[in-house]
Amino acid sequence: MKIALRNFLTTLRRYKASSLLNIVGLTLAFTACYIILVQVRWEMTYNRTLRDSERIYLVESTDWYTPGAWQSWLCRPMVERFITSTSAVESGGCTWGGFGPMTVLRENASKMGYDRFNNIYTGSISLPLLDVFDFKSVAGDVHDLKRAQSVIISRSTAEQLGVGVGDMIWCNIDQPTAENAREVVAVFEDFPANSLMAKCQMAMDLGDRCIDDPSEWSYNYYVRFQPGTDLRTVIKEWKRLFVEMYPGEANEEGQLETEPFRLSCIRDLYFEEDSRVPCAQGSLVTTYTLLGIALLVIALAFINFVNFFFALVPVRIRTVNTFKVFGAPNASLRFGFVFEAVGLVVIALLLAWYLAFAIQSTELASYISAPLNLAQNLPVIGVLLAVAVVMALVASHYPAWYITSFPPAMVVKGSFSGTAGGRRLRTLLLGFQFTISLGLIVATGFILLQHNFMLRQEMGFDRRNLMAVQLSEKAALGYDALRDRLLTDPRVVDVTGAEGRLVGVNRMSWGRNYKGQRVSMQAYIVRWNFPKMMGIAITDGRDFLETDEHKETGMLICNEAARREYGFELGDEIGGFCGTDPLVGVCADFHFRPMQYDIIPFVFYVIPEEMSQNAGGRASQLLYLRYRPEADVEGVADYLRRCIAETDPHLTPGEILIRTFEEELGEQYAKERRLATVVGLFTLLSVVIALMGVFGIVLFETQHRRREVAVRKVMGATTAEILRLFNRHYIRLVVVSFVIAAPLSLWIVRRWIASFAYRTPIHWWVFAAAFVAVLLVTIGTVTFCSWRTAGENPADSVKSE
């Protein structure tokens, strides 16, 4: 062992360039593999870290807009009856709108005032949900949430706020009083970060809100079943109850022709592709793709190890066979080379984990969901260590056998040269590297093209010179005064408001009865001038009027898709919140969802001002401002912040987040942007590793072909001809690799792009650009590595041989 260690250190000192490149390649590969495996583990265990997750199910109903799809926003009367009438249900509860940011005030006696905490994620839940997800009390009893004006908070949030059981806090309150205070009745253990309950920092009792309202489908229901429950029996019983509640949904025989709902285990929600669910979601194809990339990067790095080993064969074989002449057994020599491989792997692993630690504080860490710190990823470290050592043993076995397989006499006579089998193996390995690199470059190109296509596609409204800001409740209630103040600035063209983002996947959904048929559409509450300011054309009827906000009933404008689908006619009472809300206009179809989705029935809804004010300024919760093209964007944004802070004195301009519309839209394509970035980085890494492989093989070729090069130069060959000789083989290799990679990557790209409703064309130039890029870089690498040998004096080459 001591001799092996000494030889290993000697090798590092003697062959610095080769050892350094080998370690760099392995380090980059291990770092990439670690990051990917951490993310894959985070996704594969999503929700599975919750206690008894295999017994907890989300209740889903048929999606109103997409045939064959599902959604999980339900009305309370229906599901509450299901739960109370089913003995197999251990507990069942709901959330209302999930967990969103809230401002919390805590009394500070020393300052004679209140400390303010923003973005405390809070939600309203029904009390049985405490048992569904098994809230663990750290202090107090979480079931005391049933008390009036109470709240429960997570352990980390309690530490952040500096409060405990019995303390009073104020939630979204401008003027704290004893009457509007909430008592902290319990502190519960934090939920796992990779779960749908991760944002549950604080919870309030939902109470009986909408418990008897069958028209309000805004609640997500979770059910915990008894161990061993037969879900088929439960579904059968629930279908019977559904027919009793909604007899009009059944046919003449009293049977349902479609499944009205289903139960989805929360362990499977992350990869559920046919449903809109209230938690993070990913793609199983993307996850497996990332896992495949991780394995390929590791494979490429170890191929380089083999290539670098062979590159050093001509200069190391004399030493090896000298040892053999003096009686060293093959087993001992081979152990030394295996030890060398494992040593390189260990050094690279240590550097990789240090690099991963450094990456935590960089922007790259924001592109993955999982934390990179080693303490939370010990299983990944164990797997990576095991894979690395096994791969080192496997990858070093053949080179160790190869270099010790030559008779000492052959080397002493100077007749050593690479075998045909060895050359074929090295060519095959390098071809594999080129094929993977070309495929990844093509895939990255189309991911970027699709992302840019979605961002730049015409959406049917004027998205130029827009900025958006989420208003506090006080600012939303003071919208009219805020708008008047903003319009006094000549840089501001117009201002409008809405209840949320214009472009988004989820928004308020309506199910209504219209002339005997059930209609479904997405509804969007806006201020009267919203369609006009956004440049959305009215194709029939009229636009909203300012006086519409002061009427006793709401006003509706539907899109052309809704009129085509349901035959809406102007003047018809579609029915909003007021029950008799009429349709006053029809607008042109536009994209109110990201470009992954088709256009579906949609209505703009102007509600009475009094109703909006009673709901905390609902129609003005998000403010849109259009500025003049020549205006300074930052200047307008600063002005907007100051105006909002004057409307709500509890805010400071620095904490008000303002985004341009393009930034807001970009958030809808964050998944594609992250995928493009991650795949692009690993593509670059794979190309770098492949070029290292080229470097290793060219070193090998130039070493054992020095005599051939000398003879050719003596016979009149120029340096340029020698360089062409070396490049010819690699050019053919790139061409063959491209022929294999092109159809394979085309098949993968087509499958991925097919998931988008609107997609970029398959451009031929992406394949050509990938081929030219790899070819030019390869030629440059080969030329650089072989230049010295090609220009060497033939006499020196022959003398050294």
Shape category:
elongated
Strand order of the largest sheet: 3-4-9-6-8-7
Level of helix content? 40-55%
Strand content: 15-25%
Distinct helical segment count: 24
As residue ranges, the low-confidence spans are 413-417
The total domain count is 4
Mean pLDDT figure: 83
Terminal CA distance reads: 34 Å
Write the topology of this structure.
Layout lengths: L1 H13 L1 H29 L11 E7 L7 E2 L4 H9 L4 E20 L4 E13 L3 H4 L4 E4 L9 E5 H7 L6 E4 L10 E7 L13 E4 L13 E7 L5 H15 L15 E5 L9 E2 L7 H28 L1 H13 L4 H30 L18 H26 L4 H5 L7 H37 L9 E5 L2 H5 L1 H9 L4 E7 L10 E6 L2 E9 L4 H4 L4 E4 L13 E5 H7 L16 E5 L14 E5 L2 H6 L7 E6 L5 H15 L10 E3 H8 L1 H35 L1 H9 L4 H35 L10 H27 L3 H7 L1
Parallel strand pairs: 2-12, 4-9, 6-8, 16-20, 18-19
Antiparallel strand pairs: 1-2, 1-10, 1-11, 3-4, 3-7, 3-10, 5-8, 6-9, 7-8, 13-21, 13-22, 14-21, 15-16, 17-19, 18-20
Helix pairs in contact: 1-9, 2-7, 2-9, 2-10, 2-20, 7-10, 7-12, 7-20, 9-10, 12-20, 12-22, 12-23, 14-18, 20-23, 21-24, 22-23
Describe what is shown at a glance.
With 801 residues, the chain is of the alpha+beta class.
Walk me through the structure.
- With 801 residues, the chain is an alpha+beta fold.
- Helix 12 packs across helix 23 and helix 21 packs antiparallel against helix 24.
- The strands form three sheets. It has a six-stranded mixed barrel.
- The protein is elongated.
- It contains 24 helices and 22 strands.
